[in-house]
Design goal:
Helix content is 73%, strand content 0%. The protein is mostly helical.
Length: 511
């Protein structure tokens, strides 16, 4: 006969069982099995050695298991009753509008100033010999700069969710998560750099009808070197930002992704320009150096695979995380082709200084929203489960109108576009020496393009993140690459359209 136990004893019993399961099967036991076992116990109050619910059956990870607690985080909102969710208990810390705005504003301005600096730099280096002789490098620019959305912002979003979910409390778990993700990021940077160069060569060949072999080799070595080194530097900075946010009690979702982009564009573009010019000087005298450099990075791939496979979270993404970043790279490359063709027209050449700004601002803002929605889903809903209002057809008004935290953040982010872009336009004017002011008509067209871009991106983010979660995919790893790549494509397309309209109506003060 089983003696009824008090709630405290039952809780202690469940905790002991959780430790037993964790020790027996390791941390690789998916959270869904643990929570299922505990729910069975909580309803019966008994521990039976023959309980079928405790029999372990091998099961592969899914993308969403990577950031879910794998010990008794039952405590988690997943085990809470549906009634509690419906009552409005989101389980997330209360965050005032003022606190949200203050946390977002400084990183947003820093990120914007970084993109402004990148635009100024791009305007300067476009006159270098390598950019004049090998114009396909301009196709590389959005793809390589977009890697911060594919890699750095995705890393920031994953680690932000891990911090908010309590997955970086112990030193061992923290460093395994960090090292595994950094190794994965270096692997992805190497592969993406290679694919971006091949994509740029293909698009250049389709546009021009020819592609010399030495140009392909230069594009490959430049792209891989830039992606690898920029990813390493920015990854280390990103981990520091996440850790600092955790210590200071700041929500990393608000600061991590824009900080990842703050000087990412500038650093990446500077590396791209320097590597391309250096390799261009070697291409005739020592062409074998370019082959050796590319081969060196490719030989490091097995090292990154081995290290990243040590941690379950990065091991999952090692197998499943390629689709979004490769697709995003292709989308960004199409934007690069549009930029290349626009810059080649003397009447529209002034676009190059503004392209990184509009792309960067759109990507930064939508990445914040994506990271916040993803964290909310991780903390309050089990994989495949979405809020009631997202089970019906998508409605753009739902993204901005309402009192939910994500709706308020969407309102704040959209309202930041106009004042932020005005500040960045004025900064461009000052950095160019203050000789010419952009015309009022240009300012109106530029602000309109930026506002339309961010509005569309926020709507897509709201729909995309919930769709990914409903399908059992981790939005932290899937959504930001798509969103930042779409931001690049939309930004360049809308900006090109604005410049074309201004040229057609004879506006001369647009550059």
């Amino acid at each position: 006969m089983v003696v009824p136990k008090s709630p405290d004893k039952k809780l202690s019993q469940n905790g002991c069982l959780g430790r037993h399961i964790s020790q027996q099967y390791g941390s690789s036991l998916p959270f869904s099995q643990l929570s299922g076992s505990l729910k069975h116990l909580s309803s019966s109050g008994n521990i039976s050695p023959f309980d079928s619910s405790l029999q372990y059956e091998p099961q592969e990870y899914t993308e969403t298991d990577s950031l879910l607690p794998n010990e008794i985080y039952s405590a988690s909102r997943f085990s809470e009753s549906t009634n509690e969710k419906d009552a409005g208990d989101s389980g997330t810390p209360a965050e005032s509008l003022r606190s949200m705005l203050l946390q977002i504003l400084l990183p947003f301005l820093l990120a914007g100033l970084g993109t402004v600096s990148a635009g100024i730099l791009l305007d300067v280096v476009q006159n270098w010999d390598v950019f004049q002789d090998i114009t396909e490098i301009l196709i590389l620019v959005p793809a390589v700069l977009g890697m911060k959305g594919n890699l750095e912002m995705t890393l920031a979003s994953r680690l932000s969710t891990a911090v908010n979910a309590g997955k970086m409390e112990t030193a061992r778990e923290k460093w395994m998560l960090i090292v595994g993700n950094l190794a994965l990021k270096q692997l992805q940077a190497t592969v993406l750099g290679l694919l971006a160069s091949l994509m740029a060569s293909l698009l250049g060949w389709m546009a021009e009808g020819q592609m010399p072999l030495n140009h392909m080799v230069l594009l490959c070595s430049t792209s891989v070197s830039t992606a690898f080194l920029a990813s390493l530097l920015q990854g280390i900075v990103m981990v520091g930002v996440i850790m600092a946010s955790k210590r200071m009690g700041i929500n990393p979702d608000n600061v991590a992704t824009p900080m990842a982009a703050s000087f990412g564009d500038l650093i990446t573009l500077a590396l791209l320009a320097c590597f391309s010019q250096w390799f261009y000087s070697l291409i005739d005298l020592y062409p074998y150096v370019l082959y050796l450099i590319s081969l060196f990075y490719l030989c490091l791939i097995p090292v990154w695979v081995t290290v990243s496979s040590k941690h379950p979270a990065s091991h999952i993404l090692l197998r499943t995380g390629w689709e979004p970043i490769i697709t995003a790279m292709i989308i960004s490359s199409v934007g690069g082709l549009i930029l290349d063709k626009t810059v080649s027209d003397p009447n529209l050449a002034g676009i190059i200084i503004y392209a990184p700004v509009i792309n960067g601002v759109g990507g930064n803002l939508v990445s914040i929203q994506s990271s916040r929605i993803s964290t909310n889903l991780h903390l309050n809903y089990s994989p495949g489960e979405v809020p009631e209002d997202h089970k019906s057809c998508f409605n753009p008004c739902r993204t901005f109108f309402g009192s939910e935290p994500n709706q308020r953040s969407a309102q704040v982010l959209l309202l930041l576009v106009l004042p932020g872009q005005l500040i960045f336009l004025h900064t461009i004017h000052l950095m160019k020496g203050g000789l010419t002011w952009p015309s009022a008509l240009f300012v109106v067209f530029f602000l309109s393009a930026s506002l339309i871009q961010v509005f569309i991106l926020l709507c897509i983010a709201d729909c995309l993140v919930h769709c990914l979660w409903r399908k059992g995919k981790d939005p932290d790893s899937y959504s930001i690459p798509y969103l930042t790549a779409l931001g690049d494509l939309l930004g360049i397309a809308l900006l090109s359209l604005a410049f074309l309209i201004l040229w057609c109506i004879g506006d001369s003060g647009s550059v």
